[in-house]
Write a structure and sequence with these properties.
By secondary structure, the protein is of the alpha+beta class. 34% of the residues lie in helices and 18% in strands. The strands form four sheets. The chain has a seven-stranded antiparallel β-sheet. It has a six-stranded mixed β-barrel with strand order 17-18-22-21-19-24. A five-stranded mixed β-sheet has the order 1-6-7-11-14, with no helix packed on it. The longest helix is centred in the N-terminal third of the chain and has 24 residues. The N and C termini lie far apart (59 Å).
C-alpha cells in the first residue's frame, strides 16, 4: 500500500516565499511586536520558561505541569517563523538558553520531558494522557522551525535523538504502557520531520501511530465519561467517517491522516478524511468557523448541536480546523476547504486574541447575556460554566496564545498550491510571492474589500492560474489582461491560461451585507439571522445601543452602510433595525408596532475589546 515518497504532485508554497503588506502585515507586526513578547513575559512569570532548567524540587513553588513543554515549544516555533523574515539576536539568545537546558537535561537514551524528569521520573510512558508524546510533537515542530530560521542544529539533534528513543520504546520493542498518543500531535510533527530531513524512520513511526490507532489491545479509554467517544480510538482510522471526541486531538489526528493520504496515495485514508471534513463543515461547525461545541471533553458533540451561549469553540480547535483544511487542498481540488479555512481564520481564530494583541480567549461564544448569567448563578445553578466574557493575559492551560502566534506567522502557507500545470490561488491578501521562477503580486485591501489585482510574471507561460471564488460571493467579475473572462467556477475556481511571461488579472468580488439563516435543526437559531460582509461575520454588542439585544430585530432590508474604523482596524456596519417598546404588565395581545432605529454591528472577532458587554451573532428578524 505504501510508497517511500510521493503521492500526488500538488505542493504547497511555504510562507517563507511570501511577504505581506496591508491587513496581514499589520496583523503580523502586532504579533511580533506585542503578542509574542507578552506571552513570553507571562510564561516567564508563571515558571514555564525556567522550568526547562529542570531544577524544581518538591516544596518549591510553580510546580511544572504536564503540558508546559508544549506551551514554550509553540512560542519558540512562532518566534522562529518571525526570525526568518525579521532576524533578532536577542530572541535567538532567549531560545538558545532554553535549547541548552533541553540539551543538558535530556536523558542519555534521548528522553526529554520536564514534568517526568523532575516530578515523576519513574512513570515515563505509563499514562496515556500525560501528554509526553504531545509535548514531544510540539518540540519537534519548534526544532524544525528554529533550524530552518537560524541553521543552528543543537535543538534539532536533541529532538531527533528523542524521536529515535520513542520509536524504540513504542514501535520496535512495543514496551510502553500504551500504544498510541492520548493527545494526538506527534503524528503530524513526525511527518514534518521526515519531510525536512528525508529520514524514513520518522515517516514509518508516523504511519505506525496512525495505523495502530483504534486497532490494538493496549490503549484504554482516557475520559471516564462513557456516553461519548473522547480520544478517537474507537475504530481504525480508515473506517472513520465522523468527527468525534476532543476537537483539538481529533483535528491533529485528521491532519496526519490527510498528510499520509497524500504521501502514500492512500485512497482509503483520503475517503475517510473527506467524509470527516464534510461532517464538520455541514453538521458541526459554527457560522464563525468554531468547532467543538461541548464543554465536557472540549468535544465534537452531535449533529447540529451548536449552542450559542455555551459554545466552547476552543481557539486551538479553530486553528486545527484551518490546518486540516489546508492539508485537504493538497488532496482534492475543491474550494470548500478554502471557504472553511477563511471562515474560521477571519472569525474564530482572530477572535481568540484582542485587537491590542495582549489578551486571549480560550473559548469563543456566539452570545453573551450578562443578566442571564447573573440570575443563573444566583438562583439556578451556581457552578454553571459559561465561557469567559473578557480575554485574559494567560490561562492555567495556555495552549491557545502561542498556537495563535505561530499560526499568524505562517499564514502565508495558505495562499498558494501548485501542480505541474496550475497555480492555485486559495486566499487573497496584499502580498508578493516568489517561487519556482514565478512571481505573484497581489494588490488589494482584502479582506476589507473585494477588489484584487493579481500580477503573475516569470516562468509562468503555459500554466493556468486558478482563482478561488469564495462561497460568500454571489457576483463577481474577472478580467485577464483587460479582457472579460466569462466562465463559471469549476469546484469553486476560475481557470485562466497564462499565454505570456506576464499576466494581469483583475478580480472584483462583490461584497455586500448578507442575512444568513441556520439549518432549522439548529433549534435555537430558528427564526434568527446572522449578518456577514465578505468573509466576516458580524455581531451586536449592547455597548453600541441603548436597548437590550432581546428587544431588537433586524430589518429584512438592512440598508447597510459600511465604514472603516481605525480602533477596530476593520469595517463596522450600520443597518436598519426595529425595537419593541416596553409596556405595563407582563403580557398583552400581539402588537406589531415597532420603532425603527439605526444599529451598529461590528466584526465578530472584535467583540469584547471595549469592556464586558452583552453580545449576539444570531439576531431576531423583523416580521
Amino acid at each position: 500500500m505504501y510508497f517511500e515518497r510521493g503521492g500526488g504532485n500538488m505542493k504547497q508554497i511555504s510562507f517563507e516565499n511570501i511577504d505581506f503588506g496591508g491587513f496581514w502585515e499589520s496583523k503580523q507586526n502586532t504579533n511580533r511586536d506585542v503578542t509574542m513578547p507578552v506571552i513570553y513575559k507571562q510564561f516567564y512569570e508563571t515558571g514555564r520558561v525556567t522550568a526547562f532548567a529542570c531544577d524544581w524540587k518538591p516544596g518549591d513553588e510553580k510546580k511544572p505541569h504536564i503540558f508546559w513543554d508544549s506551551d514554550i515549544a509553540k512560542w519558540i516555533e512562532g518566534v522562529a517563523y518571525s526570525l526568518i523574515n525579521a532576524p533578532d539576536e536577542n530572541l535567538e539568545e532567549v531560545i538558545d538558553i532554553i535549547v541548552d537546558w533541553i540539551h543538558d537535561n535530556q536523558f542519555l537514551d534521548g528522553y526529554f520531558n520536564i514534568y517526568h524528569t523532575v516530578c515523576d521520573p519513574t512513570r515515563r510512558f505509563t499514562n496515556r494522557d500525560a501528554h509526553e508524546l504531545y509535548c514531544a510533537g510540539h518540540l519537534i515542530e519548534a526544532a524544525i522551525a528554529y533550524h530552518k530560521a537560524t541553521g543552528k542544529s543543537k535543538f534539532l539533534r536533541c529532538m531527533e535523538k528523542y524521536v529515535l528513543h520513542i520509536k524504540d520504546v513504542f514501535m520496535d520493542k512495543y514496551e510502553a504502557a500504551f500504544a498510541t498518543p492520548g493527545h494526538e500531535e506527534i503524528e503530524l510533527a513526525l511527518i514534518k520531520l521526515w519531510e525536512y530531513t528525508e529520514k524514513l524512520e520518522y515517516l514509518k513511526l508516523a504511519r505506525y501511530f496512525v495505523n495502530l490507532r483504534g486497532n490494538n489491545e493496549k490503549d484504554r479509554p482516557i475520559y471516564n465519561h462513557t456516553d461519548f467517544v473522547y480520544e478517537q480510538s474507537h475504530e481504525p482510522v480508515r473506517e472513520m467517517r465522523e468527527a468525534v471526541g476532543h476537537s483539538v486531538r481529533a483535528e491533529y489526528l485528521y491532519c496526519a491522516m490527510a498528510d499520509l493520504a497524500r504521501i502514500d496515495n492512500d485512497e482509503e485514508l483520503k475517503t475517510a478524511c473527506k467524509a470527516i471534513f464534510n461532517d464538520i463543515a455541514t453538521k458541526k461547525m459554527y457560522i464563525t468557523g468554531g468547532v467543538g461545541s461541548g464543554i465536557l471533553g472540549e468535544c465534537f458533540t452531535e449533529e447540529y448541536d451548536l449552542p450559542n451561549q455555551f459554545a466552547y469553540s476552543e481557539s486551538c480547535a479553530g486553528i486545527g480546523l484551518a490546518l486540516l483544511a489546508r492539508r485537504m487542498n493538497l488532496l482534492d481540488v475543491n474550494s470548500i476547504y478554502d471557504d472553511v479555512a477563511e471562515r474560521v481564520i477571519y472569525n474564530n481564530i482572530f477572535a481568540s486574541c484582542s485587537i491590542s494583541g495582549r489578551e486571549f480567549f480560550y473559548t469563543n461564544p456566539l452570545e453573551i447575556n450578562l443578566k442571564e448569567r447573573r440570575l443563573t448563578h444566583k438562583y439556578r445553578m451556581e457552578n454553571q460554566n459559561y465561557p469567559a466574557t473578557e480575554r485574559q493575559p494567560v490561562f492555567d492551560c495556555s495552549c491557545c496564545p502561542p498556537n495563535f502566534t505561530r499560526f499568524i506567522e505562517s499564514f502565508g502557507d495558505f495562499l498558494y498550491t501548485t501542480d505541474d500545470n496550475t497555480i492555485f490561488i486559495h486566499h487573497y491578501a496584499k502580498s508578493t510571492a516568489a517561487f519556482d521562477g514565478i512571481k505573484i503580486k497581489q494588490t488589494t485591501d482584502y479582506p476589507l474589500n473585494g477588489k484584487i489585482k493579481i500580477t503573475v510574471s516569470g516562468k509562468c507561460t503555459g500554466k493556468e492560474i486558478a482563482l478561488r471564488i469564495p462561497s460568500w460571493c454571489q457576483k463577481f467579475t474577472v478580467k485577464a489582461d483587460g479582457t472579460q473572462v466569462k466562465q463559471k467556477p469549476q469546484n469553486g475556481f476560475i481557470y485562466i491560461k497564462c499565454e505570456n511571461k506576464k499576466l494581469v488579472i483583475e478580480l472584483d468580488l462583490e461584497m455586500k451585507a448578507v442575512l444568513n439563516e441556520a439549518n432549522p435543526l439548529i433549534d435555537q437559531n430558528f427564526g434568527r439571522v446572522a449578518v456577514s460582509y465578505g468573509p466576516f461575520i458580524y455581531c451586536l454588542e449592547d455597548i453600541d445601543t441603548d436597548y437590550r439585544i432581546s428587544e431588537i430585530s433586524l430589518s429584512k432590508n438592512l440598508n447597510a452602510t459600511i465604514k472603516y474604523v481605525e480602533f477596530f482596524k476593520a469595517n463596522i456596519m450600520e443597518v436598519d433595525a426595529f425595537i419593541v417598546e416596553n409596556f405595563e404588565g407582563l403580557y398583552r395581545p400581539l402588537d406589531n408596532k415597532k420603532t425603527p432605529i439605526r444599529l451598529m454591528l461590528v466584526p465578530y472577532y472584535t467583540f469584547a475589546n471595549r469592556g464586558e458587554s452583552d453580545m449576539a451573532v444570531w439576531l431576531k428578524l423583523s416580521r
